[in-house]
Amino acid sequence: MLFPGLDRGNADENPGEAGSRIPWGAGGGHLFTALPAAFSEAETAAMLAAIAAAKPDVLWVGMTAPKQEKWLHQHRDQLAVPFAAAVGAVFDFYAGNVRRSHPFFLRYHLEWLPRLLQEPRRLWRRNLVSTPLFLSWVAREKLMRVRA
């Protein structure tokens, strides 16, 4: 398994421990260092080469949204990986960099709310513009399938 986006500091501080805290990474996986904000062609080629060399069965990509989804989509034909998924801040949660929301918010599927309040500049557009837009697209697709 590869974990693009896992903070390099966590891997260096506790090699193996960061992977052991990630449930699907237990038993030894490959940790890939944190990814830069923008990728040059050389950096992208190096990442793709590292992924190809590791030959993982699973690729968990933990970049910020929507960068991780765009990166996976853009390079899907170059990734010889049976399963790849974008997991957002999951690495930071398991590595202890970011605290999960209070169980109340988790229970009611509102984990995004405390994060929005903590980082409004970074997250407002995603939570207040992109998410409703995406949900409207999903609803439209469902309605079109029901009518068909």
Description:
This protein is mainly α and 148 residues long. It has 2 domains: 1-99; 101-148. It is built from 8 helices and 4 strands, in the order βααβαβαβαααα. A two-stranded parallel sheet has the order 1-2. The protein has a two-stranded parallel ribbon with strand order 3-4. Helix 4 (67-75) links the parallel strand 3 and strand 4 (83-86). Helix 7 (112-118) packs antiparallel against helix 8. The chain is globular, with a radius of gyration of 17 Å. The relative contact order is 0.13. Residues 10-16 have low confidence and may be disordered.
The fraction of residues in strands falls at 5-15%
User: Which sheet architecture does the biggest sheet show?
Assistant: 2 strands, parallel
- The overall number of domains is 2
Task: Report the mean per-residue pLDDT as an integer.
Answer: 79
Helix and strand string, N-terminal first? EHHEHEHEHHHH
Topology:
Layout: E1 2-3, H1 8-13, H2 17-21, E2 30-31, H3 41-54, E3 58-61, H4 67-75, E4 83-86, H5 90-95, H6 103-107, H7 112-118, H8 120-147
Helix pairs in contact: 7-8
